[in-house]
Amino acid sequence: MDIKKDIRFRVYIAFTCICVFGFAIIIKAALIQVKEGPRLKAMAKEMHTRFDTLLADRCNIYTEDGVLLSSSKPEFDVHIDFSVIDSGLFAKNIDSLCLCMSQLFVTKTPDQYKEEFVRAYNEENRYYFLGRKLDYSQYEAIRSFPIFRKGKGLGGFIVDSREKRDNPYNMLAYRTIGVYRDSNISGLEATYNKDLVGENGRRVVQKSTGSVWVPIEGSEVDPQNGKDVVTTLDIGVQDVAEHALMSILQKYECLYGTCIVMEVATGKVRTLVNLGRQTDGSYWEDFNYAMIPTEPGSTFKMVTLLSLLNDKYINVNDLVDAQGGAIHFGNRTMKDSHLGLHVMPIWKAYAESSNAAMAWLADKYYSNNPSKYIKHLTDLHLDLPTGIDLAGERRPVVTKPGSSSWSNTSLPWMATGYGVLISPLHTCMLYNAIANNGAMMKPYLVSSIKEYGKEVKTFQPTVIEQVGDANVVAQLQKCMRAVVTEGTAKGIESPYYTMAGKTGTAQVADKGIRYTDGVYQGSFVGFLPAENPKYTICVVIRTKPHSAAYYGGAIAAPVFRMVADKIFSQNMGAWAGPLDSLSRNASGVIPAKAATARSYQVLLAALDKRTPMSFDYMNIMTELHTDSNRHMSVQPAKLYRNVMPDVTGMGLRDAVYVLENNGLLVTVVGKGKVSVQSIAPGTRIAKGQTITLQLS
């Protein structure tokens, strides 16, 4: 009896537990249905539907004449899942697959590919690496190969695609154009990122049989592609400026250099080169040196002269005594780089770049009220960034009276370019204002934004300030002209066009460099042609410690000349006036390019001009000459030994003939006529040197 009760008790306990457990399941199921049901349904739906992002195309960066500077191109990483490939398919096609691979990638033989593929197949490798960063043509070729053409499900072909930002000209204007990567964006790519990037779209896709994701019709939201950015850069001048600057940097092992070309009337930046020395001794566009404030040196004397003229304290024909080139201010002595200068006109002191004379003038007229001098600097916006449309511009530094760094010698030293930090871009902007009859233009790099070829936004020239009246500007232009004709840049001028400018040499003490380290900054800034300025060029170069050459006239002025020659030779901006009115040397030679007489015959016929021409000249290089009565004749060209001729605009055969006769090795890119030559006209050349011709 007790046993039966015991058994019955155990049965009741078990039954009760089962009921409680069942009831708990029912409650839990209800809770899940009510509370978590919507979330779980959504999760289930997500397993069968999802949103896919439709990437917008990042658009391109161009020059005004349509040259592509930056664009996006696809890159592909390819892997193979050997576990899904049928054994019969693999055995039948492995030999032909390996042959195709060896023809596309010549680094391995068919047997080597077969050995690797067979081993990976036997190991059932599910993510075998086949190629990284393949371009579109390589990707299209591989996906058409035997086995791989079956796709992912049968051929194991796995591809990961992405877009890569590409600069077709490599280093050319690299820092200006900038880079665009996930973790790094700079230059114009950063400034105009919102215009370039566009807006991504999306669509809903649903999983169907075979785990294939199929778009749901009507769910697409199309991406809005970006817009094209049109820059003011001239790639031909940019190329010549880079090569010219590079040649000087390499020759003297300089630390870095920058070259800016600005259009006088508009402020458009036509060229912006920045080259820095790397640890291996090579040079690269690694930093935007044009926008880094440094002590400018003697080019800042323009500010001092401009201040004195605007305040009506002086006329450039007034006399100033440099006192032998050494004048004491407080406990310091201001010295000229070359002693011996005494009484002379102010324009002459400027042309000779006399530190002593400029410091004395500033001290005489502003020592009792230095804030008046500083106000001229602020009026010229030299205490503010230029506002150029390029990311990374730093603010200049102007020491002011009352600050902890101001002393009784600050003014005379500032008058000669020390104790103030401005960028090369500021210097270029200031001198461009003198070239532009006193109108200071805001520098800019982008002329328009285009969408599908149509302009949606244009950028117009902006006048920042009128720096002086016509009389002041004329006197400053006279001083700058004297620098070239009889001052520190004498000998730089071309026989074909005029120029005006200013040299600058500053001893450097910044970024861990001390004055005793012997590092200098050589500069030259000027404009051309002097009588009707069209372009301003600024070159700034920082030397290595204790360099053999450091004066602006020795290292920066030659770069200026090479770039100016290029601008003149390609007639960038179309100087107004008849063909022979801009400049002609004493012999009556028009600065037209040398060409075969046959080419000139066609030109003169188009101009309805008739000129006698010897048959012997028909296939040799010739020049067009005029006499005092403007009668034209074609004569053999004067091609000077060891001097680079200008071959832009020539046909390839004529150009190669001229260059090879000068002992040069010629490489050619493109088709058509010569649009760019890698060595600037007038440059000294050596036999065996290589020159690259860009045809278009």
Radius of gyration: 36 Å
The name CATH uses for the topology of the largest domain is Beta-lactamase
**Class by helix and strand content?**
alpha+beta
CATH architecture call of the largest domain: 3-Layer(aba) Sandwich
The end-to-end distance, rounded to whole angstroms, is 114 Å
Q: What would the average pLDDT be, to the nearest integer? A: 84
State the CATH superfamily name of the largest domain. DD-peptidase/beta-lactamase superfamily
Count of helices?
A: 20
Number of domains: 5
CATH class category label of the largest domain:
Alpha Beta
Find the count of extended strands (DSSP E, 2+ residues): 32
Uncertain residue ranges: 572-593, 614-619
Into which percent range does the helicity of residues fall?
Answer: 25-40%
Q: How much strand content do the residues show? A: 15-25%
Broad shape = elongated
Largest sheet: 7 strands, mixed
Question: Overview of this structure, please?
Answer:
The chain is α+β, with helices and mostly antiparallel strands. The chain has 5 domains: 2-47; 54-229, Penicillin-binding protein 2a (Domain 2) (Alpha-Beta Complex); 235-570, Beta-lactamase (3-Layer(aba) Sandwich), CATH 3.40.710; 577-638, no CATH class; 643-696, Trypsin Inhibitor V, Chain A (2-Layer Sandwich). Helix content is 33%, strand content 24%. It has 20 helices and 32 strands. The strands form 10 sheets. Strands 2, 3, 4, 5, 10, 21 and 22 form a 7-stranded mixed β-sheet that branches. A 6-stranded antiparallel β-sheet has the order 13-12-11-26-25-24, sandwiched between helices. Strands 1-8-9 form a 3-stranded antiparallel β-sheet, with no helix packed on it. α2 runs antiparallel to α3 (110-122), α9 (235-252) packs antiparallel against α18 and α10 (301-310) runs parallel beside α12.
